[in-house]
Amino acid sequence: MYNWDRIRAIIYWKYNCIYLEDGEGILVEKVRGSLLLIGGAEDKEGEKKILKRFASLVREKDSYLLILTSAASQAGQVGREYREIFQELGIEDVKILDIDSRVEAMSPENAGLLGKAGGIFFTGGDQLRITSNFGGTRAYAALKEAYEGGTVVAGTSAGASAVSTIMIVGGEGEDSPRLNSVRLAAGLGLLEGVVIDQHFAQRGRMNRLLFAVAYNPQILGIGIDEDTAVEFQEETSFLVHGSRTVTVIDGRGISHSNISELEGEQALALLNVKLHVLPAGYAYNLNTGKVIIP
């Protein structure tokens, strides 16, 4: 029998979520789709394991796949390439949408396309092309509502970086971590509490991710290698797919940092940072900070 003196249950619906509050805190069960973030340069010619995984998730939704090429400089070519790949992987109805202005992002027709999609795929390119065009528009509202309602969302390279609340937009990652190591901006906000970097090991981006975490140790840093992906479900954990690794930087236990005192070319000091390197099959729980070994 429940001890109702200890447990107070308040159940209500808000933004397609159920909140259950008791004496131990608030547990949140979110009715959302999967989120698949790819570090770029995913296999498009061989086994296509990551793209196959995304295609299998989309097919379960019984609706079309929408490829968003907003980040790409050669949107038409990129869109056609991915459409051909996903059709080969069994998705018959694949649409391409290139929102390259805020006028297009305010279009009811484009918002409708986003709202009814079973899957949404952000291509690579420049993440600022996405956020500067989508922010505060009908397209953004439709994207967020679709995701929270169960639509499967994926992004590769810049498309992966853009989905978090805070995103990395640049920096000199190959040098020792200094004030110019990273540049941050607001992202789309589909994924909270993390910052994503892509092409991670291949472009030597450890230092800029360390710096991003040093700015706010509460935010988890996730560096995704090329041909590697993380699959989030209900924002509580992610599973690694692909041929390389994912690096997790957890700064919640940092005991000392000089980031607030840095000037000029001074180097960053950061003590007691927790770091994990996870290959395919490993999982990570964002709430507990624990690695799940296969």
Question: What would you note in describing this structure?
Answer:
The protein has 294 residues and is α/β, with parallel strands linked by helices. It has two domains: 1-31, no CATH class; 32-292, Class I glutamine amidotransferase (GATase) domain (Rossmann fold). Helices cover 24% and strands 30% of the residues. The protein is built from eight helices and 20 strands. The protein has helices at residues 49-59, 75-88, 102-105, 108-116, 127-134, 138-148, 158-161, 206-215, and strands at 11-14, 17-22, 25-30, 35-38, 65-68, 94-97, 119-122, 152-156, 166-170, 183-186, 194-198, 220-224, 228-233, 237-242, 245-250, 256-257, 270-271, 274-279, 283-285, 291-292. α8 links the parallel β11 (194-198) and β12 (220-224). The longest helix has 14 residues, at 75-88.
**From the coordinates shown, what is the CATH architecture of the largest domain?**
3-Layer(aba) Sandwich
**Number of domains as seen in the coordinates:** 2
Globally, the shape reads globular
Distance between the termini: 36 Å
Structural key phrases:
9-stranded mixed beta sheet; alpha/beta; 294 residues; 8 helices; 4-stranded mixed beta sheet; Rossmann fold; 20 strands
Annotate the secondary structure layout.
Elements: E1 11-14, E2 17-22, E3 25-30, E4 35-38, H1 49-59, E5 65-68, H2 75-88, E6 94-97, H3 102-105, H4 108-116, E7 119-122, H5 127-134, H6 138-148, E8 152-156, H7 158-161, E9 166-170, E10 183-186, E11 194-198, H8 206-215, E12 220-224, E13 228-233, E14 237-242, E15 245-250, E16 256-257, E17 270-271, E18 274-279, E19 283-285, E20 291-292
Parallel strand pairs: 4-8, 5-6, 5-7, 7-8, 11-12
Antiparallel strand pairs: 1-2, 2-3, 4-13, 9-10, 12-15, 13-14, 14-19, 15-18, 16-17, 19-20
Helix pairs in contact: 4-6
